[in-house]
């Protein structure tokens, strides 16, 4: 419960909350080590890292819940988790919420796309009727066991149906019980300002490198009115580029020695993944045992 309460307070605070994306437990540890107060489990990143496939609805609920559990166990900061469409109708959403909550999530994100869904910055996305999504939100609110478990309601209506419909849906999802409203793929700063004038609940922005939404720094998003911002694929793209470059160097030169300055060393990496705590426990010092903060 502690981490969920912490996330709620962070969202309600005056300063905008920055949530970098994590595509696995290791990247989540890096987010925490870099000093961020919360982390976002990206569905795009899970599909890429587990399946090596694009974000087109290939991950099932049990796979995503397992990834949620892995990441939540790896860090001591709140984890906000992408749950796509909830993996079905209201009955499916109830199970999804319970599984994510049991896995250690501090927040769940549900979107109004049809199944199979697509990444929110891809074209060709379709949305379900607004009332159908509102019913899912009501089901999610009823299913959670912890009142501090946040429900993020996302609409993908902007791209195909325009800003008016996207805001209408956002307000409907507010009324249905969502804690945070996420209007995806806004295309201008004026649209972003309008959303924050017309939506009463806290709002979240999505900063995707190369995506459809203006790419703004957190301080400007805060001035516009956002309570939180995710950078869902920053870590994924950075890791892919770094690994590719090191491998190219290894292939060309037959050694990784020339790339050592772009890597953590053996000691640094072992510290990152918690070896010192293991050594303490092995010596009988149980003060290093992590406590369940949820």
Automatic annotation (TrEMBL):
Top-rank taxon: Bacteria
CDD domains: ICL_PEPM
GO terms assigned for molecular function: lyase activity
Keywords from the named record: Lyase
Keyword Lyase carried by entry: yes
Gene3D superfamilies: Phosphoenolpyruvate-binding domains
UniProt name for this protein: Isocitrate lyase/phosphoenolpyruvate mutase family protein
Organism, as annotated: Oscillibacter valericigenes
Lineage summary: Bacteria, Bacillati, Bacillota, Clostridia, Eubacteriales
């Amino acid at each position: 419960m502690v981490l969920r309460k912490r996330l709620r307070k962070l969202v309600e605070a005056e300063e905008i909350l920055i949530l970098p994306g994590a595509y696995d437990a290791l990247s989540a540890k890096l987010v925490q080590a870099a000093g961020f107060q919360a982390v976002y489990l990206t569905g795009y990143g899970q599909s890429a890292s587990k399946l090596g496939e694009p974000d087109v609805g290939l991950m099932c609920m049990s796979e995503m819940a397992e990834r949620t559990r892995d990441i939540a166990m790896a860090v001591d900061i709140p984890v906000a988790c992408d749950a796509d469409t909830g993996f079905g109708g209201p009955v499916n959403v109830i199970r999804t919420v319970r599984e994510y909550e049991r896995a250690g999530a501090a927040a769940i994100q549900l979107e109004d796309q049809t199944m199979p869904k697509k990444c929110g910055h891809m074209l060709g996305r379709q949305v379900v009727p607004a009332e159908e999504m509102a019913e899912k939100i009501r089901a999610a609110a009823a299913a959670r066991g912890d009142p501090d478990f946040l429900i993020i309601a996302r609409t993908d209506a902007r791209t195909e149906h325009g800003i008016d419909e996207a805001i209408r849906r956002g307000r409907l999802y507010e009324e249905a019980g969502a804690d945070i409203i996420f209007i995806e793929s806004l295309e201008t700063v004026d649209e972003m300002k309008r959303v924050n004038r017309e939506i009463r609940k806290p709002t979240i922005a999505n900063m995707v490198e190369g995506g459809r939404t203006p790419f703004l720094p957190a301080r400007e998003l805060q001035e516009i009115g956002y309570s939180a911002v995710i950078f869902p694929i920053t870590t994924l793209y950075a890791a892919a580029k770094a690994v590719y470059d090191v491998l190219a160097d290894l292939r060309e030169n037959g050694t990784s020695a020339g790339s050592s300055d772009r890597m953590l060393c053996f000691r640094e990496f072992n510290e990152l993944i918690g070896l010192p705590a293991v050594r303490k426990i092995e010596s009988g010092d149980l003060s290093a045992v992590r406590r369940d903060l949820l």
